[in-house]
Design goal:
Blueprint lengths: L3 E5 L6 H4 L8 E5 L2 H9 L5 E5 L9 E2 L2 E6 L6 E5 L9 E2 L5 H15 L13 E5 H6 L2 H4 L2 E4 H9 L3 E8 L6 H16 L1 H9 L3 H14 L1 E4 L1 H16 L23
Parallel strand pairs: 1-2, 1-3, 7-8
Antiparallel strand pairs: 3-10, 4-10, 5-10, 5-11, 6-8, 6-9
Helix pairs in contact: 3-6, 8-9
Length: 263
């Protein structure tokens, strides 16, 4: 049987989902930035991708049930770093490696902060969006800037969790074996958080402690009813803001029979 081609990301928050995934023999795994995973999935270069939720298209993909990268409050690893109070910002340099985070900035500008900045990658921007490990590791005090946590801002706006990424693929690939294996990898990864943090920290004990706290406190991996509600709210708001195309509702995989893989 041809291995299922999986696209994932190397950020710390994704590591529990892919811990030991390649060893199962069912998958071949490659790592890219989130936006690249989405592009590869759209191009049929991978079969299943850990994609930013802004890239989900109901006409093309189904979602692996019960699994996501989410947050129920402060996320720590997705933030706007600003030289001034966010309400005074007029330009934000966007990190283009995740379109979900950029779309969320658009939503928060319209619905939370009441500003209409012109996104730019120029050095003269008032603020900058960082995601993933760079956002997690950046100390705002070192640069004399404010850190506006987008997970916390979303929770304050909606009262809902936020879903940052999920496993998605075409329905023909999402067999029962594929879905169960990805769910089981998530469960194994949660049990191995201390080991994952130590590997990430490369011998730095304080960094390892911060990584454990981040993975256990800031990040969640269950796509439950509350997270689905948050996801639907975001997709609707992002479409209304013109940040993503308007798409249909969510489709969860319903794997009942063996499906072809690797094609």
């Amino acid at each position: 049987m041809t291995a299922v081609r999986v696209g994932a990301v190397e950020y710390l928050n994704a590591r529990p989902l892919v811990h030991g995934l390649g060893a199962a023999g069912l998958f071949s795994v490659r790592f890219d930035v989130p936006s690249r995973c989405a592009d590869l999935l759209a191009a049929h270069a991978i079969d299943v991708g850990l994609i930013p939720v802004a890239e989900y298209r109901a006409d093309d993909y189904v979602i692996v049930p019960d699994v996501c990268i989410g947050s129920s409050g402060p996320v720590a690893s997705v933030a706007v770093f600003s030289q001034k109070p966010i309400e005074s910002v007029r330009s934000i340099a966007l990190d283009t490696s995740s379109r979900t985070s950029a779309a969320l900035v658009r939503v928060l500008c319209a619905e939370r902060w009441g500003i209409a900045p012109l996104p730019t990658m120029l050095q003269g921007a008032d603020a900058a969006l960082l995601i993933g490990d760079p956002a997690l590791e950046t100390d705002p005090g070192q640069y004399g800037v404010l850190k506006i946590d987008l997970g916390a801002e979303w929770r304050a706006l909606t009262g809902l969790p936020f879903v940052w990424a999920l496993w998605a693929g075409r329905e023909s690939v999402m067999s029962a074996d594929v879905c169960r294996a990805l769910q089981a990898a998530r469960d194994r990864g949660r049990e191995a958080i201390a080991m994952i943090a130590e590997d990430y920290a490369c011998g730095d004990s304080s960094r390892a402690r911060r990584a454990v706290e981040y993975l256990r406190t800031n990040i969640g991996y269950d796509l439950d009813a509350a997270h689905i509600a948050g996801l639907e709210r975001f997709l609707s708001s992002a479409a209304a803001a013109g940040a993503i195309p308007r798409a249909g509702g969510l489709r969860l995989a319903r794997p009942a029979a063996t499906a072809p893989v690797g094609g």
